[in-house]
């Protein structure tokens, strides 16, 4: 088993001791302190007496007198028994050692086993010695081990593990001083008792960084350090040791890791960490925290080497610092930014709790005082003055500067201005100029010299922020505003004059007087008046007097009157031609000059089976209260009990049938009177009619057609008549003949007339040139060129036929008709006569129809109801044979190849037999 060897010092001197009970010894100090030493044997007597001497010399120790840990019966090498609390000995350089070679104690107070050992049933005790390297003082502590309570043993068989070395860590100081190499510790293996072994090491500190720091003597196992080592770079080094056969190199024991702790020495001075620029509000109270100074030390944490103490070397009249945590605070209230805005303090940080031998550093901290509003704005003058012209409406009249010691462009510096006095009429306003912080005084309204020659204002200046840590108050300053006189025009006594006048007052009635005066002379002399606006020309204004008189009838119900008020504008001009205007509002008092009037005098009642109908009468009166509603409704005389009025309310009344009446139009006289019993008899037309969907059928037809519909119908008929006349003239014009190569030997004119050609003249149709002149014109008298006048009498089958307007179409389309009108001259035909007479007849029919609409009564529509008609069958194949039905584009002659039954009759007439 590999072990570590320690040296133990013994002391044989002892004081007087008393043995009690044969096994326990009680030692009394001169201060009558007693210590119980649990030594089981008499040979521990000397140790107890020595302990008495050590503790008698030391009045106060940082080590407890004893430790009493409980341990298992079997202890393996490396088993940690306990740890001594050395916190109270941090300021002492203490060397620890054990008087029992089976146990070791490390620098941090950890107690562990070096070899496998066992504890007897009665326990086991050994002593730990402590020595202060600086003072040389020594004292001890007893470690009294007792067995832990035995647990029930397992029934399973225990398997024996292979023995191996398990050493405790050992330490070396950093930055060791020569000579090197320096022996530090010896390692050994239990196998060396039976075999010859060589020791080998590897790993960090050997063949890994820091390479070559630790070496071993292969024969003896003595470890040595070859050079100084820096703990801050290598806090500990763990390498591996082996015990091998010198010949074969075979391991005689399991490889063992060794830990070498580098013991710290105070070789690093503390350093400042973080910024050293701090800030605190000015005028702050004492003990206000400015900030915390941070520092660090590279030495081992938890040792005096890193116990930093803070100290101020300058500025301690205004500031103080906490020695342990570096917190910087204020000590005085005399921190004024306006006097000095930046302070610097020199600080020291020293380790070893500030001991003189501790390492230290210094630095300068900058403390900026932040601004607070402890200075109000002040005016540079004791008073200010400004001059303005009267009647000047708006504009800047004065700049008022202020001074403020606080930080510029902050709420502590920015000023706000207020007019405390003299601005009761809101004539002035004051604003802040952002860049200069000046107060800008403006005019809101004009001043009148005749009323105010001088105005005194009191203006105060404040900051946006509230005042702090000061007894000062907001400053005020007086401002005198002088008003300069200006020549100004006249002024009406009041800008708006209200007068009352009765409507329908006689012309020339004096309503009132509206005068203006000169503000400077306080007189109306030389002022002339005229009207600017008078929409109804109801008022005359006296040119020199300003009298207002009625010029025309004043009607309260006129649309020029709003809520009973009528306004006129009057102008006044003084001798210097300076004008002034004013408004006269006339409140027109109502008179009862309007009768109630029924709004709708044409009403309908739907006829209902066995039910009497009704309708509602509504009346309105242009007059106001009390010359208006509620109205009274009464029926006129000679009603024969047909009608009755019911439910008369305010402006309405219901007109009921008193008995069943036939469909038709009735007139009902109704007397309507207002609240003052003023009214007249009015006639209402009531139509009783059959209804469809709640509406009279006659009304439905009329409303569907309407006056605009009738006008559209007349225009359409007129356009149709003009179009037909145009085509009739077009057809009457002689056209160039177009011969068709067809079996019918027919000929078609380009005018599309259906009359026969000259070669197909029927001899049965002759023109009588001697016909009477009173029958629709004269006979056509040819001049040889085919021109002449039309004779309305024609021969039809050797009879004279009168071509009247009513019969012209029947004659033209009769089965007996087989001829045409004859033109004197022999070679021309009377195509135009047929068309002219046809359209004249149609025009006559249209005239009669339109006259019937104008002359017939409205009751004609009562019979215009829906009727059912018989089915008339399908239309003929030929369609319409009207005069214009075949008028088509002259260019489309394709139909000549397929003449249908429509032209059979004409073909039979026109074709030679």
Describe this entry's structure for a reader.
With 913 residues, the chain is mostly beta strands. It has seven domains: 18-147, Cadherins (Immunoglobulin-like), CATH 2.60.40; 171-263, Immunoglobulin-like (Sandwich); 271-370, Cadherins (Immunoglobulin-like); 378-484, Immunoglobulin-like (Sandwich); 491-589, Cadherins (Immunoglobulin-like), CATH 2.60.40.60; 597-689, Immunoglobulin-like; 722-852 and 882-897, no CATH class. Strand 35 (428-432) and strand 36 (439-443) form a beta hairpin.
List keywords for this structure.
Immunoglobulin-like; elongated; mainly beta; 913 residues; disordered N terminus; 10% helix; 7 domains; 5 helices; four-stranded mixed β-sheet; five-stranded mixed β-sheet
What is this structure, in a nutshell?
The protein has 913 residues and is mainly beta.
Into which percent range does the helicity of residues fall? under 10%
Number of folding domains? 7
What overall geometry do the principal axes of the alpha carbons give? elongated
The total count of helices amounts to: 5
Spatial extent as radius of gyration:
70 Å
pLDDT average, as an integer? Answer: 76
Uncertain spans? 1-60, 152-164, 734-751, 755-833, 858-864, 882-892
Q: Got a strand count?
A: 61
Describe the biggest sheet? 5 strands, mixed
> What distance separates the N and C termini?
164 Å
Structure classification: mainly beta
What proportion strand? 25-35%
């Amino acid at each position: 088993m590999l072990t570590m060897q320690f040296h133990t010092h013994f002391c044989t001197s002892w004081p007087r001791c008393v043995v009690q009970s044969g096994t326990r010894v009680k030692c009394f100090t001169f201060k009558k302190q007693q210590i119980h030493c649990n030594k089981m044997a008499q040979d521990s007597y000397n140790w107890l007496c020595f302990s008495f001497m050590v503790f008698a010399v030391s009045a106060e120790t940082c080590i407890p007198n004893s430790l009493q840990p409980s341990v298992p019966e079997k202890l393996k090498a490396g088993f940690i028994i306990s740890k001594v609390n050395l916190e109270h000995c941090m300021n002492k350089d203490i060397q620890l050692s054990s008087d029992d070679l089976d146990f070791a104690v490390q620098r941090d107070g950890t107690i562990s086993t070096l070899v496998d050992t066992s504890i007897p049933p009665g326990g086991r005790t050994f002593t730990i010695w402590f020595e202060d390297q600086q003072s040389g003082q020594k004292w001890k502590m007893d470690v009294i081990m007792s067995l832990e309570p035995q647990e029930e043993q397992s029934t399973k068989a225990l398997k024996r593990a292979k023995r191996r070395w398990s050493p405790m860590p050992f330490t070396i100081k950093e930055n060791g001083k020569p000579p090197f190499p320096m022996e530090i510790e010896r390692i050994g293996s239990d196998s060396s008792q039976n075999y010859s072994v060589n020791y080998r090491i590897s790993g960090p500190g050997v063949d890994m960084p820091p390479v070559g720091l630790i070496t071993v003597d292969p024969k003896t196992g003595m470890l040595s350090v070859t050079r100084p080592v820096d703990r801050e770079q290598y806090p500990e080094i763990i390498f591996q040791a082996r015990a091998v056969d010198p010949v074969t190199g075979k391991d005689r024991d399991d490889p063992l890791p060794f830990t070498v702790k580098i013991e710290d020495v105070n070789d690093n001075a503390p350093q400042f960490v973080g910024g050293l620029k701090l800030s605190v509000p000015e005028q702050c109270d004492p003990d206000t925290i400015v900030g915390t100074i941070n520092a660090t030390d590279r030495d081992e944490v938890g040792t005096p080497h890193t116990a930093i103490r803070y100290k101020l070397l300058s500025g301690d009249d205004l500031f103080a610092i906490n020695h342990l945590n570096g917190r910087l605070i204020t000590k005085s209230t005399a921190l004024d930014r306006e006097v000095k805005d930046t302070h610097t303090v020199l600080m020291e940080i020293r380790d070893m709790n500030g001991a003189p031998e501790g390492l230290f550093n210094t630095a300068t901290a900058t403390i900026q005082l932040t601004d607070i509003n402890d200075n109000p704005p002040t005016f540079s003058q004791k008073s200010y003055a400004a001059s303005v012209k009267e009647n000047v409406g708006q504009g800047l009249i004065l700049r008022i500067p202020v001074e403020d010691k606080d930080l510029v462009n902050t709420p502590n510096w920015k000023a706000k201005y207020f007019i405390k006095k003299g601005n009761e009429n809101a004539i002035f306003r004051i604003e802040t100029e952002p860049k200069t912080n000046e107060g800008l005084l403006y005019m809101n309204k004009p001043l009148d010299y005749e009323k105010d020659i001088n105005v005194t204002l009191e203006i105060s200046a404040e900051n946006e922020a509230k005042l702090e840590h000061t007894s000062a108050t907001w400053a005020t300053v007086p401002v005198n505003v002088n008003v300069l006189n200006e020549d100004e025009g006249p002024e009406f006594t009041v800008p708006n004059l209200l007068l009352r006048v009765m409507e329908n007052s006689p012309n020339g009635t004096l309503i009132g007087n509206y005068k203006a005066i000169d503000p400077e002379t306080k007189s109306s002399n030389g002022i002339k008046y005229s009207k600017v606006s008078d929409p109804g020309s109801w008022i005359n204004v006296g040119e020199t007097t300003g009298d207002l008189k009625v010029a025309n009838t004043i009607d309260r119900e006129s649309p020029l009157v709003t809520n009973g008020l009528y306004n006129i504008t009057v102008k006044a001009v003084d001798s210097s031609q300076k004008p002034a205007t004013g408004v006269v509002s006339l409140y027109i008092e109502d008179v009862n000059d309007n009768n109630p009037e029924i709004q709708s005098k044409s009403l309908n009642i739907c006829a209902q089976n066995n039910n009497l109908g009704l309708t509602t009468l509504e009346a309105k009166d242009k007059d106001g209260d009390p010359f208006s509603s509620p109205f009274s409704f009464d029926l006129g005389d000679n009603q024969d009990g047909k009608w009755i009025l019911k439910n008369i309310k305010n402006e309405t009344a219901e007109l009921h049938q008193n008995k069943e009446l036939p469909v038709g139009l009735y007139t009902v006289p109704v007397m309507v009177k207002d609240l003052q019993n003023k009214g007249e008899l009015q006639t209402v037309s009531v139509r009783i009619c059959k209804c469809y969907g709640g509406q009279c059928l006659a009304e439905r037809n009329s409303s569907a057609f309407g006056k605009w519909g009738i006008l559209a119908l007349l225009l359409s008929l007129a356009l149709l008549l003009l179009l037909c006349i145009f085509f009739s003239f077009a057809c009457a014009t002689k056209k160039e003949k177009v011969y068709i190569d067809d079996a019918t030997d027919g000929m078609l004119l380009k005018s599309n007339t259906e009359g026969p050609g000259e070669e197909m003249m029927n001899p049965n149709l002759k023109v009588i040139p001697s016909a009477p002149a009173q029958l629709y014109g004269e006979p056509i008298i040819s001049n040889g060129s085919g021109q002449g006048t039309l004779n309305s009498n024609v021969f039809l089958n050797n009879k004279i036929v009168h071509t009247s307007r009513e019969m012209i179409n029947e004659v033209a389309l009769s089965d007996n008709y087989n001829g045409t009108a004859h033109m004197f001259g022999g070679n021309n035909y009377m195509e135009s006569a047929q068309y002219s007479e046809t359209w004249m007849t149609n025009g006559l029919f249209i005239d009669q129809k339109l006259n019937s609409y104008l002359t017939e009564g409205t009751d004609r529509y009562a019979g215009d109801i829906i009727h059912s008609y018989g089915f008339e069958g399908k239309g003929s194949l030929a369609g319409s044979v009207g005069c214009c039905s075949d008028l088509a584009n002259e260019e489309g002659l394709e139909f000549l190849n397929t003449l249908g039954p429509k032209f059979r009759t004409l073909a039979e007439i026109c074709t030679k037999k």
